[in-house]
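Suppose you are handed a protein chain with no further information: no name, no annotation, nothing but its sequence. What can you learn? This example shows the usual starting point.
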Amino acid sequence: MANLNQLTITEASKKLAAGEITSVQLTEACLAEIEKKNPSLNAYLEVFADALEQARLADERRALSLSKGLEISPLLGIPLAIKDNILIEGRTASAASKILENYVATYDATVIKKLKEAGAVFLGRTNMDEFALGGSTENSAYGPTKNPYDDSRVAGGTSGGSAAAVATHMALGALGSDTGGSVRNPASFCGVVGLKPTYGAVSRSGLIAAVSSFDQIGPITKTVEDAELIFNTIRGQDPLDSTSTENPKSEIRNPKKKIGVPRTLLEKGVEPDVLACFESSLEKLKGQGCEVVDIALPSLDYALSAYYIINFAEVSTNLSRFDGVRYGLSLKGESLFDDYASSREAGFGSETRRRIVLGTYVLSAGYYDAYYGKAVAAREQLRREYIKAFESVDFIATPTMPDAALVIGEKSDPLSLYLIDIFTVTANLTGNPAISIPMGTVEKEGKQLPVGLQLTAAHGDEAALFAAGKLLY
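A reasonable first move is to predict its three-dimensional structure. Written in structure tokens, the prediction is:
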């Protein structure tokens, strides 16, 4: 059967259950596509040599479960791609950094344990911005991932490899991590679905930390239904992550349909063609019975500033562990300080070093209250405004990104790249769940490039996001 890799997870799961295809056939189709496309796109940093063996074991497990009348997970035998900052025992996890180039994980991340229990097949580890710091995957130590729709453009970041892999059918689905839009940004640029769950809904145990109070693992898939399937597999409280919560799967009895739009935020540099797609999506939702109203969120003006100050501060703290002594790259100098300085200079890229320096600055004596303290206060004010907003609306809608995918090298000034996160960082600041759904394409230099619609919901209300997303996609 041709083009098996183009199936959605839901479609493939049904065919596997009916005995029409095997996991080996699915995996072979994905591997063939990887061999054809990955050399030019650079979505995978490593393709696992035992992927077909994993698939064979999945087929055997299915046969045994059927013979014993056991329940079978819909993810059994489904080939997935995994972002390079999520630990899989016995495999390299470099976070796309030279400092962890040869690091081999000694345990499974909790999400990996759950996917293994479900019987998923891991195809390989995908490219990303180093330590999940960036928005284009240009900060990878191993080169950028290119956009499937135009290889002169970025795939987005920091989960660019995962999004490109799904968009090009080199995997049926993928895991990414979202710190300030790192799942939703590349999902928008690559024309796929990306979910950032409620903070704490998915365990962070085994995720290489970037910004601990923002990071969340989330699925990147071809459809909303597939994102829901993966999310419901990996969600749940974990004793290994004290911030995780047991948030029972909610059921939508009466679909929620009141959508708030922060119009003042849309005035901040959204490209006209993206705005036109956004308005068209709102009209489609109205046609499905939704009500669209304007809302005010005054503290949004401070969201980007607060986000990056907290980001820098936590990056400085989290990356202090990479000192050239305990693990990772270790270069020797004339003194202990030289060991430390040389290892970090050679191991970290320029963006990572920049954030460490700035984070150390905002946490230093004399500047802590002026910068970090105010950023935390702004974050709390924004969180309160979101709670209040969700008393009157069911979703908040914006474009996911203000423009389509950037040309590689276009945003050489770091500040200009930071500004494209204007719509995505709020969900990380407040901890709310948010999803990016394809909403059409815009033309850039003769090529049609995808753009995404972002919906944000109240804490723990992923089910509402899925229900609304299915109205559109």
